[in-house]
DNA sequence: GTCTATATTTGGATAGAC
DNA sequence: GTCTATCCAAATATAGAC
């Protein structure tokens, strides 16, 4: 932004570009070897560098994971921004489309799904900055669902995340590349829609809107 | 079984007992360090041995994973056998109870869930013998559901696995040790029940029972 | 900024004595 | 069956020359 030192600016820009290239290469390796199978040697080879050079861009392997985490969230954000204009306004269709969007994004890259949503990497914890991006994404999703008049409390939200991620998980674990669970997306979305609608009607009949967390539904155990 | 060489018998029994001890220790390490963080050194320390001694019992680390996989399935089998006598006969209640059972088993040991159901360990593939155990478990589950008159084709089954594992996944990933998704088990089970019942009614009205895979529901994409 | 060389650690696996 | 000693490979990370 400063006009003062353009050469610094250019240098910094180049630095950032190289960083981004490395992250892209890291994702390629992760997709190929598995997220936990990522090694700096293979990343370096892919960007035509030696391993020590990577340390000019990332302080540690965990730092690289963190950049991947941030970039994955950026991708999801871009993916959502790009498509949510086309979302149907009808609530039922909107929920179906939302489920399809999430499913497509997640299953199109299982390694990314694992890093962003499953927290299964050995000792990785996202930095506050990267975590903030994840929160931003969740907030956007939440808003979209609330805007459709479908979600009224955290329980509704938890229900939808469980249903959608269940489809994704089974698809990835038991039929990678196939469509066994993809074919169930609309069915499940409709189930969720009907449930939320009838719950809303029940609440409406009861008059006053009770606060969240006082469900009449008894828990298990 | 043979009466001929009792000393062999005793020795073999002891050998098997030590093997089982090692597997138990391995599970403890896996729960503590994460499934991928399992190291032979830590397992050996826990059974008061040196690493090379483990090789008297397991040919490789993957062989140990395989034994853990087999034992995990045995545990699930025992867990099911022990409790399915108490399952309600009423179909709706039976489905609820089944969801609760699966949820309890899975969330009570996330590392085990990961190895048995998520296939996320680096280069691990179960041996044919261990895989057979996994199939046996799935068959038992399938029979129980079919006996309740709830599941008629693979699509029904896939729906139930998606819903139940969605709850488990969210619970483990986003609220480990808590009950945010546990509280939704009955809700989701009832949703599934209502869906399967009304699907059955629809099929009944249409007369002939159409074969699986010809759903009128269009897939996404 | 990138490299060569190297340190360091760790973890799986084997040889061979007891 | 268990151990000590050792090997080997891989992988992260650093030092210091260019």
Largest sheet of chain A: none
Helical coverage of chain A, percent range: 55-70%
The count of β-strands of chain A is 0
**What top-tier CATH class of the largest domain in chain A fits best?**
Mainly Alpha
Alpha plus pi helix count of chain A? 9
Terminus-to-terminus distance of chain A = 58 Å
Q: What would the principal axes of the Cα set say about the shape of chain A?
A: elongated
Oligomeric composition of the shown chains: homodimer
* CATH level-3 fold name of the largest domain in chain A: Tetracycline Repressor, domain 2
CATH homologous superfamily heading of the largest domain in chain A: Tetracycline Repressor, domain 2
CATH architecture of the largest domain in chain A: Orthogonal Bundle
Class from secondary-structure proportions of chain A: mainly alpha
Q: How many discrete domains of chain A?
A: 2
Mean pLDDT of chain A, rounded to whole units?
90
3D architecture notes:
Two copies of one chain form a homodimer. Chain A is mostly helical and 221 residues long. The first copy, chain A, has two domains: 46 residues, Homeodomain-like (Arc Repressor Mutant, subunit A, Orthogonal Bundle); 143 residues, Tetracycline Repressor, domain 2. Chain A contains nine helices and no strands. In chain A, helix 5 packs across helix 9. Chain A is elongated. At the A-B interface, helix 5, helix 6, helix 8 and helix 9 of A face helix 5, helix 6, helix 8 and helix 9 of B. Chain B binds a DNA duplex (18 and 18 nucleotides) through helix 3.
């Amino acid at each position: 932004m400063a006009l003062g030192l353009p050469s610094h600016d250019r240098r910094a820009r180049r630095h950032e570009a190289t960083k981004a290239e490395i992250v892209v290469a890291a994702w390629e390796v992760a997709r190929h070897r598995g997220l936990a199978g990522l090694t700096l040697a293979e990343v370096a080879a892919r960007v035509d560098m030696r391993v020590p050079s990577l340390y000019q861009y990332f302080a540690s392997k965990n730092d690289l994971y963190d950049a991947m985490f941030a970039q994955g969230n950026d991708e999801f954000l871009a993916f959502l921004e790009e498509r949510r204009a086309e979302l149907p306004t009808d609530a039922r269709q909107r929920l179906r489309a939302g489920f399809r969007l999430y499913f497509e994004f997640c299953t199109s890259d299982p390694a990314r799904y694992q890093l962003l949503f499953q927290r299964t990497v050995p000792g990785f914890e996202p930095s506050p900055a990267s975590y903030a991006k994840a929160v931003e994404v969740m907030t956007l999703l939440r808003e979209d669902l609330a805007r459709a008049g479908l979600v009224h409390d955290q329980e509704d939200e938890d229900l939808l995340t469980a249903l959608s991620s269940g489809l994704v998980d089974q698809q990835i674990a038991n039929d990678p590349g196939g469509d066994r669970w993809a074919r169930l997306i609309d069915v499940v979305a409709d189930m969720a829609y009907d449930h939320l609608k009838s719950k809303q009607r029940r609440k409406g009949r009861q008059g006053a809107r009770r606060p969240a967390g006082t469900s009449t539904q008894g828990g298990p155990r």
